[in-house]
């Protein structure tokens, strides 16, 4: 069995998670309710209650490199059932933000799917499902992804073959650019600069 | 004498869940609810946005809440639980001034007035009510045994969603009973179907949706009734993938609750987009005498 050193917790890591999630990690008393109800536990490398424990111990690297962060679907079972009112799903979400910022993506295809989705939103203002699939395939090289579903979908007209771009698409693109901290373009803008 | 309410269709409504959008619009119309689309609505960002950043996610949602309010729509309804969760979480978090300010920095506007958001399920249950639904039923679904599957985020987390019971919701059960269906108990009402893992980790969806199909079949259901485009797609379109992965032989039709309500209220199968479903629903509907 793996042992965990209790020395030298990364207190900066704990503080950052506390601030960004608004949740107090030390409130977890390890009852295991979150793990008991987690539908994804069978696929996790570290159960969610153990992620909470490693967080309390300031084990930054082990936490941020966990595949579990990428597999969590924010189904809210843990948050709904935590007896100490910790918003566990929000903690998982914040840890995923931090893993992304640290350059970890231990479930590469999950990240590729999310990226493809947001690129579609940034480009058109709405999601274009066929475009997401194409972009995902290009990012991952998984050319046969869901190809067996096409015969069921195409004749039913469920796959729009052309994207729908909204009038305010530029507004959406601007939200993304500001989020990334890119300089405002030369065109007029009424909003304050960050 | 119709009640006007804002409508946020969500992106899948013009793609993989066209039949949910069509049946929602037709059923609301029949029940005297006049849906007005949020002008030039944009994507809420869904799960990918909040897994990247909460301020980005809230900004994508807030744009829509503000557009709705500007169009004089103080309440907006959406059929999709993922849209619902993002739109409601954004409104909830923006009650805090510090967070609202961060969101405003990404938008061009002040976010002074934001519309409230409710699921279409909630509107049909609370604003219309089961009695009014029952009064419109012309073809009761009395020979149909169904289980109602709500998915994980229609009612959770309870502080944000403020609707129905987070562990044992009854809204769809009540509406289906109003339409005359026999609603069977279903212990996995709020267990996750595998959500958006379908493309990157199909094995997760086939496992989780497989469990739902096994239990629905075990309860003796003729059909599963859903309220979420992603749940519906995983259970219906991916039912073949589930069968290949698990060696099962399920052929359970998976409806949107609005499709069954529409059929019960005398709307046609083509208006309800019945032919859009992947698992053939015809035998089940013929046996129930509503086709």
Automatic annotation (TrEMBL), chain B:
<keyword id="KW-0560">Oxidoreductase</keyword>
<dbReference type="InterPro" id="IPR051278">
    <property type="entry name" value="HdrB/HdrD_reductase"/>
</dbReference>
<dbReference type="Pfam" id="PF02754">
    <property type="entry name" value="CCG"/>
</dbReference>
<dbReference type="InterPro" id="IPR004017">
    <property type="entry name" value="Cys_rich_dom"/>
</dbReference>
<feature type="domain" description="Cysteine-rich">
    <location>
        <begin position="6"/>
        <end position="88"/>
    </location>
</feature>
<feature type="domain" description="Cysteine-rich">
    <location>
        <begin position="146"/>
        <end position="236"/>
    </location>
</feature>
<protein>
    <submittedName>
        <fullName>Heterodisulfide reductase subunit B</fullName>
    </submittedName>
</protein>
<dbReference type="GO" id="GO:0016491">
    <property type="term" value="F:oxidoreductase activity"/>
</dbReference>
């Amino acid at each position: 069995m793996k042992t965990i050193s209790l020395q030298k917790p990364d207190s900066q890591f704990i503080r950052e998670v506390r601030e960004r999630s608004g949740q107090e990690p030390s409130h977890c008393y390890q009852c295991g309710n979150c793990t008991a109800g987690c539908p994804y536990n069978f696929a996790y490398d570290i159960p969610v209650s153990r992620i909470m424990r490693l967080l309390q111990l300031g084990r930054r690297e082990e936490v941020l490199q966990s595949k579990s962060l990428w597999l969590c679907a924010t189904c809210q079972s843990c948050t709904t059932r935590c007896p100490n009112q910790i918003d566990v799903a929000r903690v998982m979400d914040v840890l995923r933000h931090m893993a992304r910022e640290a350059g970890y993506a231990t479930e590469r295809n999950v990240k590729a799917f999310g990226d493809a989705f947001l690129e579609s939103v940034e480009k058109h203002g709405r999601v274009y499902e066929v475009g997401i699939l194409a972009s995902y395939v290009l990012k991952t090289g998984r050319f046969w992804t869901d190809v067996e579903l096409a015969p069921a979908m195409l004749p039913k007209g469920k796959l729009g073959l052309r994207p729908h771009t909204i009038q305010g698409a530029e507004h959406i693109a601007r939200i993304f650019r500001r989020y990334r901290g890119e300089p405002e373009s030369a065109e007029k803008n009424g909003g304050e600069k960050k | 004498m119709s009640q006007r309410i804002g409508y946020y269709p969500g992106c899948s409504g013009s793609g993989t869940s066209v039949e949910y959008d069509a049946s929602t619009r037709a059923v609301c119309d029949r029940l005297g609810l006049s849906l007005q689309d949020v002008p030039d609505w944009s994507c809420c960002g869904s799960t990918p946005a909040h897994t990247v950043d909460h301020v980005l996610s809230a900004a994508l949602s807030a744009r829509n809440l503000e557009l709705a309010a500007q169009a004089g729509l103080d309440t907006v309804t959406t059929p999709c639980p993922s849209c619902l969760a993002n739109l409601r979480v954004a409104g909830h978090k923006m009650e805090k001034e510090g967070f609202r300010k961060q969101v405003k920095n990404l938008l061009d506007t002040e976010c002074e007035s934001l519309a409230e958001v409710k699921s279409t399920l909630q509107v049909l249950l609370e604003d219309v009510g089961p009695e009014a639904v029952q009064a419109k039923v012309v073809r009761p679904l009395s020979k149909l045994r169904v289980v109602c599957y709500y998915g994980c985020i229609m009612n959770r987390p309870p502080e944000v969603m403020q609707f129905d019971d987070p562990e044992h919701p009854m809204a769809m059960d009540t509406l289906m009973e109003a339409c005359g269906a026999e609603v069977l108990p279903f212990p996995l009402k709020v267990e996750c179907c595998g959500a958006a893992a379908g493309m990157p980790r199909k094995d997760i969806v086939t496992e989780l949706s497989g469990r739902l199909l096994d239990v629905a079949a075990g309860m003796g259901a003729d059909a599963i009734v859903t309220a979420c485009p992603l749940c519906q797609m995983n259970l219906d379109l991916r039912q073949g993938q589930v069968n290949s992965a698990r060696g099962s032989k399920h052929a359970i039709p998976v409806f949107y609750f609005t499709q069954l309500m529409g059929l019960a209220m005398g709307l046609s199968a083509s208006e309800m987009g019945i032919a859009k479903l992947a698992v053939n629903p015809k035998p089940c509907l013929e046996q129930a005498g509503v086709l």
